[in-house]
Amino acid sequence: MTIDQLIGFLSQPRQICITTHTRPDGDAIGSSAALALLLRDMGHKAHLLLPNKAPAIFDFLPCYADVLCYDQQPDACLEALAQAELIFILDLNDYKRLEGLTLPIAQHTAPKILIDHHLDPQIEPNWAWCNPHISSTAELVYQFMGLIGRHPYLTPPIATCIYTGIATDTGRFKYNTQANTLAVVSELLRCGLDMQHVNGQIFDRQTESQLRLQGFCLYERMTILPQYQAAYIALSTDDLTRFNFEDGDLEGVVNMPLSIDGINVSVLLAERDGKIRLSFRSKGNLAINHIAQRYFAGGGHANAAGGTSYASLPDTIAQMAAALARLYEK
Ligand SMILES: [Mn+2]
Q1: How many Å lie between the centroid of ligand 1 and the Cα of residue 98?
Q2: Does the pLDDT of residue 330 top 80, yes or no?
Q3: CA of 117 to the centre of ligand 1 (A)
Q4: Which of 149, 170, 203 is the endpoint of a domain?
Q5: 313, 282: one domain
Q6: Own/partner pairs, 281-289, CB within 8 angstroms, 24+ separation
């Protein structure tokens, strides 16, 4: 499929499904919601299908309420897919990250469009708009709007969704932020984005237990490994239960140790549902995605990656420390 064929396909009302990765973050839900609004404004029927729910802090986003979650409404998701003439896959480089939606989408016969900024896409779509050098999938959705001639129709709700993806995936413009990123934000502001309001919605709506969990992480559960310029935070299921943990409560915690001078790698280990989820972050040229990929069946970006371990928490910590040692082997 070429872009002109895609534009032609979108020139009459279509049934479209949009999906994104499990445990959706601000970019996943922001970029998907932006695209859903854009397609609905064009007269299409656009369903947003998620493997599972996005954190409640994103409930201010348009579309949040009409998302279909496969873990809660599998029949409604399959019904929408049965009608789908086109499927958009966003912020995702591997079908596995669709969890329960993996097979229904991978095996679907409708043309698939991939919009993503992860390295090494494992998906072969009919058309793709992918670039690992772009801040966020939301910024790519903004570019896609331009490709199909929709920039003049950038509404404040679409701007809100795109901004949410960019602001969260750049850690409030701390990283992955280039001239084009800020040029897009400038355009969003011109089109009616209320940036101060949206920042408040995204960043200043934590719960008390969430903030106390962060304090606990730093005071009781952070270990510094000076020999590797690294720090890790390890949380057991009991720790999470004590702070009434909900999805999204640890958002951003993995980045906190990186604010220590001399710490260039940070790892968050959280034990949930019988497995350990690992998040890796690093500064500068130190890439950690190969560690996530090689030792913890995961992957991601050079400076932000994730993986999983089925070993115990102490064993996983030991494996992680051994993997960090190899970072510095020449
Ligand atoms: Mn992203």
Answers
A1: 14
A2: no
A3: 7
A4: 203
A5: yes
A6: 281/254, 281/255, 282/258, 283/258, 286/327, 288/327, 289/119
What per-residue string of b and e applies to 88-108 under the rule 16 or more CB within 10 Å gives b?
bbbbbbebebbeebbebbeee
What is the whole-number distance in angstroms between the Cα of residue 142 and the centre of ligand 1? Answer: 13
In this structure, of 8-22, 118-132, 229-243, the range with the lowest mean pLDDT score is 118-132
Distance CA 28, CA 31 (A): 6
Question: What is the rounded CA–CA span in Å between residue 161 and residue 67?
Answer: 14
The CATH number given to whatever domain includes residue 172 is: 3.90.1640.10
CA 31 – ligand 1 centroid, Å:
9
CA of 136 to the centre of ligand 1 (A): 5
Query: What are 11-35's pLDDT values in tens digits?
Result: 999 999 999 999 999 999 999 999 9
End-of-domain residue from the set 203, 229, 253: 203
Please write the tens of the pLDDT for every residue from 280-325. Answer: 999 989 999 999 999 999 988 889 999 999 999 999 999 999 999 9
Which residues contact residue 269 at a Cβ distance below 8 angstroms, ignoring those fewer than 6 apart?
A: 232, 233, 234, 235, 276, 277, 278, 309, 313, 316, 317, 320
Q: What is d(CA 324, CA 303) in angstroms, rounded to the nearest whole number? A: 14
Residue 146, domain extent: 3-203
CATH number for the domain harbouring residue 305: 3.10.310.30
Residues 188 and 226 in one domain: no
What residues flank ion ligand 1 with Cβ within 5 A?
A: 27, 91, 137, 169
pTM over 0.70: yes
How close is the Cα of 113 to the center of ligand 1, in Å?
16
Domain count, the chain: 2
CA dist 130 and 283 (Å) reads 24
- What's the whole-number mean pLDDT along residues 43-59? 95
pLDDT value, residue 328: 81
Ligand 1 centroid – CA 329 distance (Å): 30
What is the distance between the alpha carbons of residues 48 and 60, in angstroms, rounded to a whole number? 16
